[in-house]
Design goal:
Blueprint lengths: L1 H16 L4 H13 L6 H26 L1 H20 L4 H29 L2 H29 L2 H21 L1 H14 L9 H4 L5 H28 L5 H22 L3 H4 L1 H20 L5 H15 L2 H7 L1 H5 L1 H32 L5 H27 L2
InterPro entries: MFS, MFS_dom, MFS_trans_sf, MFS_Transporter
Organism: Acetivibrio thermocellus (strain ATCC 27405 / DSM 1237 / JCM 9322 / NBRC 103400 / NCIMB 10682 / NRRL B-4536 / VPI 7372)
Membrane topology: Multi-pass membrane protein
């Protein structure tokens, strides 16, 4: 049963990643047809992000009432419906409308499944879970590219991914008895019932503020690094645009492949050590990028190292949550962590864009270093607080 559920969760995370890069891939074709400025893609992404934040903060409540299986199935259904809505949208306001269920569904399934894996499975599965998300996020643009090239239609790209989500939804609904059986076993073995924590109550728990800042900083660093890598390489390092784009894509490949490799060692080394190793590799990568001597290969390799260093941090922070704060609090705190993560990934990259516009894009590694230092400080402070609490 564990294996069957795990396969379903992996499949769900592939589906979670599939739509994430569709908008970026299709937008150059979409915005002239919709007769809107190119910058309007930011409006859609902000609506989606707002939905994910709202649903992440409320996941604990709905999971306690309906269970992880039903929440996952309904959430995937919501994203499927939203994707079909995108495929038939002829105006920009319709895209904005369909972005609401897309964001709400994505945030709920993300928080619910992360907590389920953190409670029921070893740390290696959390790393592989997020590796599968990376596979989905990598395959999505290829699907859109195929539809644009062969069918000359961005609508069919959204419809294809939506069809995959519908198939997964059917599988998830048929698998609900398996989820319910696992939930019953878990409930019988629990010594404490899951708590419904309000945000202000969660913030009073020692270490929660630190982990939220660390999570915010990580997502700010990862998304800013990925979004502005090509621009930095071209505008500051003078690297050819095609070369810069190819190496920038390796940043994401480094994250995905790194998480695959992490799964083989994370149970032996432990989540805390994996986070420290990741932060150390990011430090080396940033040092290579920030070197005053502009050696092209060193800079490009540094960017890949930043991606590899990012790989263990996100899944290991999540998997450590039940241990740090108690299984009864984990769903509530993971939901808040997800909201913090989405906030960092939504607002920090555009803020750097404004900063670069009015100053210089050469601040790219400095901006990333700020969040790296914040992560190091917060994770080590969290570790001290948790060790102090455990020793009592």
């Amino acid at each position: 049963m564990y294996s069957l559920l795990l396969a379903l969760i992996y499949l769900a995370f592939i589906s979670l990643g599939l739509p994430d890069a569709l908008l970026g891939s299709a937008w150059p074709t979409m915005y002239p047809v919709l007769e809107v400025p190119v910058s309007f893609a930011g409006i859609i992404s902000m609506i989606i992000a707002g939905g994910t934040i709202v649903s992440s903060l409320n996941t604990n409540r709905v999971v306690r009432k309906f269970g992880t299986g039903l929440v996952t199935a309904v959430s995937v259904l919501m994203t499927a419906v939203a994707l079909f809505g995108f495929s038939v949208s002829k105006t920009f306001w319709m895209l904005c409308l369909w972005s609401i269920p897309y964001g709400l569904g994505a945030g709920a399934v993300d928080s619910a499944l992360n907590n389920f894996v953190a409670l029921h499975y070893a740390s290696r599965h959390m790393s592989w879970l997020h590796c599968f998300w990376g596979i989905g996020a990598s395959v999505g643009p290829y699907i859109m590219s195929y539809c644009l090239t062969v069918k000359n239609s961005w609508e069919s790209g959204y419809m294809t991914v939506g069809a995959f989500q519908i198939v997964l939804t059917v599988i998830l609904f048929f698998s609900l008895p398996v989820w319910n059986k696992q939930a019953k076993i878990k409930k019988e073995s629990q010594t404490e019932e899951p708590k419904h924590l309000k945000i202000h109550e969660a913030l009073k728990i020692k270490g929660v503020k630190q982990v939220l800042i660390a999570f915010f900083s990580y997502c700010a660093l990862e998304t800013t690094a990925g979004l502005w890598a090509s621009s930095y390489l071209v505008l500051h390092q003078g690297i050819e645009a095609k070369v810069a784009a190819r190496w920038a894509s390796l940043f994401y490949l480094g994250i995905t492949f790194g998480r695959f490799l992490n799964g083989f060692v994370t149970d032996k080394l432990g989540n805390r050590n994996m986070i420290r190793i990741g932060l150390g590799i990011i430090t080396i990568g940033l040092a290579a990028v920030i070197l005053p001597v502009q050696i092209e290969l060193v800079t490009l390799a540094g960017l890949v190292l930043i991606g590899i260093g990012c790989a263990p941090i996100y899944p290991c922070i999540i998997h450590e949550t039940p241990k740090n704060f108690g299984a009864e609090n984990s769903q509530a705190i993971i939901g808040i962590q997800m909201a913090s993560a989405y906030t960092g990934s939504t607002f920090m990259p555009p803020i750097f864009g404004v900063l670069a516009k009015f100053t210089t894009i050469s601040l790219y590694p400095v901006y990333l270093t700020f969040f790296l230092i914040l992560m190091i400080v917060m994770t080590e402070r969290l570790n001290r607080l948790v060790v102090s609490k455990e020793s009592r």
